[in-house]
Design goal:
heterodimer, A: mainly alpha, B: 230 residues, 2 domains, 10 strands, 37% helix
């Protein structure tokens, strides 16, 4: 009960922020919320199940183009393209997982990275359809979901918050379920889990598909919300970002990815206004955080004060 | 009853078990003894399918020889490995729940298991890596019992524990006999073997060299000493 209350209060806090933030920050918050959906899915695989993937950019890209291509090719829009994008992320994650999960640890990381690179190069190769490096600009008319005009800052932010709220609460429900216990068992020790009757391959494949659905939804939402889909979103950088968000906010905590995404986003925003060498300062800040709170911000809070936090 | 015939097991090119034959009968404790390195732990792992293995593994007439490791526990064989091997960051309750889910057991089984280990009931919300060594061993056994196994494999369960904990574990093992569970116990302490076991299988160079009833061993102390190296 405490855990649910904690997350509902956090969502209420976000709603208050959404209501009072000026346009510039409201737009940033919408971006952060969509990236937090992506990182929340990544965290299910990485923080809760122990799969260190560098292939999630492929799932994100699959979601983005799974939504953008029906828009540009057939003039679709709205909920169907969001659903298609989400499905594309899940299907691609399942296909990658079928092969990549025959490996684990560093090998898994490398295999997923190679799949993602292959996906990125495929997007570039078919530039006549995907727009290649330049990407696709999505027409404003297609950027409406349930009557909400996504070209406007405020409606976009509220829809982003709605999607994040659902994604967060589903993630909390999943990690608190019986299956969530098995995820944690896998993370801690695969052989021990096998000894107790659980099939690591099957469990991790299920989690990877769920994680892919999150990434696909986030990719689709990002494209529709901000009107652009590009191959650049399928590069390795977009696999590293959700990992950083999870580590910074607290891997294996449900709200951690949002905190990590927000902290990183506004840290870069703030420091880049001070100096061109902002990435160096951001790097120093991350090193300090890792030294003093290696479990991330919310991981530190859980360790010290809130041991019941999922 | 668990029956092993012609079992061999290896780690890569190194063969550890050779043509092992063994029976573990319901309601009995079968103890595995032998010097370090003879393959006792490997035998436990081979039964669970956790090492490359050949031979026949029969449980109550069902052939488990070709099952993947994760399906062995679902047929009713549970292992309490050497060194406890809990999920450290998970609570006592969560560790038990993982055991319960293996064979879809519920609250009633959990309550029965907790009745055997009242100390665990007091610590359900505690993270398991913060338990004492003895409590961790109790939890490892409790987690295995949550599966309601037909065969319980215990790999040196009393190693490094204080006498009161050893006594508690001995009481649980003795209690299991009455419920018809076949217990296979790897144990080095002679007095523990004499107290708990019905039969003792002596291993040497990866084989079961001889199986003797405990009553016979009591009568032939020199042979017993020769096998366990004392």
């Amino acid at each position: 009960m405490k855990a649910w209350l904690f997350h509902l209060v956090a969502l209420a806090g976000l709603a208050v922020l959404a209501a009072v933030l000026p346009a510039y920050h409201a737009n940033n918050l919408a971006r952060v919320l969509v990236l937090a959906v992506y990182a929340t899915g990544y965290n299910l695989a990485f923080g809760y199940t122990g799969m260190l993937s560098l292939g999630h950019a492929l799932f994100f890209g699959a979601g983005m183009f799974g939504a953008a291509l029906p828009v540009t090719l057939w003039g679709w829009g709205g909920v169907p393209v969001l659903a298609l994008g989400m499905l594309a992320g899940g299907v691609v994650a399942g296909a990658v997982g079928l092969l990549a999960l025959r490996t684990k640890g560093v090998s898994f990381m490398i295999v997923t990275l190679m799949f993602a690179q292959a996906g990125y190069l495929t997007l570039i190769w078919f530039n006549a359809v995907t727009g290649g490096d330049q990407g696709l600009v999505l027409p404003g008319a297609a950027r409406r979901v349930l009557g909400i005009d996504l070209t406007q800052d405020a409606p976009r932010l509220w829809l982003a918050l709605g999607i994040y709220a659902v994604a967060l609460l589903l993630a909390v429900a999943l990690v608190r379920s019986r299956f969530g216990r098995i995820m944690l068992a896998m993370r801690e020790n695969e052989e021990r889990s096998r000894m107790l009757g659980y099939n690591p391959y099957a469990v991790k494949l299920k989690v990877l598909v769920v994680s892919g659905l999150y990434a696909g939804l986030a990719g689709a939402a990002y494209g529709l919300f901000f009107g652009y889909a590009g191959a650049g979103f399928a590069t390795v950088q977009y696999s590293i970002l959700p990992m950083l968000y999870s580590l910074l906010g607290g891997a294996g905590t449900a709200l951690g990815p949002l905190i990590g995404a927000a902290a990183m986003f506004w840290l870069i925003d703030f420091v880049s206004s001070l100096t061109n060498a902002y990435l160096m300062l951001v790097g120093v800040a991350l090193i300090v955080l890792v030294l003093f709170a290696p479990r991330g911000i919310l991981g530190f809070v859980r360790e010290r004060w809130l041991p019941w936090l999922p | 009853m668990l029956r092993l015939e012609g079992v061999s097991a290896s780690y890569g090119a190194v063969t550890v078990l050779r043509d092992v034959a063994l029976e573990a009968r319901g309601g009995e404790v079968t103890c595995i003894m032998g010097r370090n390195g003879v393959g006792k732990t490997t035998l436990m792992r081979a039964i669970m399918g956790l090492v490359a293995r050949q031979g026949r593994f029969m449980l109550d007439g069902d052939d488990l020889s070709d099952l993947p490791a994760h399906e062995v526990p679902r047929h009713g064989i549970a292992l309490v490995p050497q060194g406890r091997r809990l999920f450290g960051p998970l609570t006592v309750a969560e560790n038990l729940e993982i055991g319960l889910m293996t064979r879809h057991r519920g609250r009633a089984v959990r309550e029965r298991v907790l009745d055997l280990f009242p100390r665990l009931r007091e610590r359900l919300g505690q993270v398991s890596q913060t338990l004492s060594g003895g409590e961790q061993q109790m939890l490892a056994i409790a987690r295995a019992l949550c599966m309601e196994p037909k065969v319980l494999l215990l790999d040196e369960p009393t190693e490094g524990l204080q006498p009161s904990m050893i006594a508690a574990i001995r009481d649980v093992v003795m209690g299991l006999k009455a419920t018809g569970v076949a217990t296979v116990l790897v144990e080095q302490r002679v007095e523990a073997v004499l107290q708990m076991a019905d039969r003792v299988a002596f291993m040497d160079h990866g084989r079961v060299a001889e199986v003797l009833a405990v009553a016979d061993l009591r009568a032939d102390a020199p042979q017993f000493a020769a096998y366990v190296g004392v």
